[in-house]
Amino acid sequence: MPVRCIRIKPLDITLTISKIEAVSRRPAPPPRLAPKESLIVELLLREQELYGLQLVAASRGRLKRGTVYVTLGRMEEKGFITSRLEDAPPEAGGLPRRVYEPTAFGRRVLDAYELVHRHLMPEPAR
Q1: How many domains would you assign to the chain?
Q2: Three-state SS for 54?
Q3: pLDDT tens across 63-81, in order?
Q4: CB atoms within 10 A of CB 105
Q5: Is pLDDT of 95 > 60?
Q6: Which candidate, 109, 97, 98, places its Cα nearest to that of 41?
Q7: Can you tell me the distance from the alpha carbon of 75 to that of 125, in angstroms, rounded to the nearest whole number?
Q8: Within a domain: residue 69?
Q9: pTM metric for this prediction
Q10: Taking phi first (over 0 means left), then psi (-120 to 50 degrees means alpha), and beta for anything else, what does residue 19 get?
Q11: Gyration radius of the chain over CA positions
Q12: Which 8-state DSSP code applies to residue 93?
């Protein structure tokens, strides 16, 4: 395998291609599911589709109006949920609403976190 040399005065630095490739082949870290994200996926699995304020109401105070949309945006970037625009009801008027639903990936991540949680919880004393 060829060796590439870069000269920087007064130092000489030699990098081999194999070292560079080894660094770039590290496996991706497992996905992380924050407690609020876990709650959102659970609520969406129960109801199938909800918009942001419905999630806040269904959470019974565990989600706040000021942070739910930031969390939903982050979850969509991670691939845990998807969204689509839904026309506003004619009697209500206003802007279209964004409706969220869980993805298959989001379901799998939640299942994995629940499995790990069950196995790591201490057993009650007998």
Answers
A1: 1
A2: helix
A3: 999 889 999 999 999 999 9
A4: 14
A5: yes
A6: 109
A7: 38
A8: yes
A9: 0.70
A10: alpha
A11: 23
A12: -
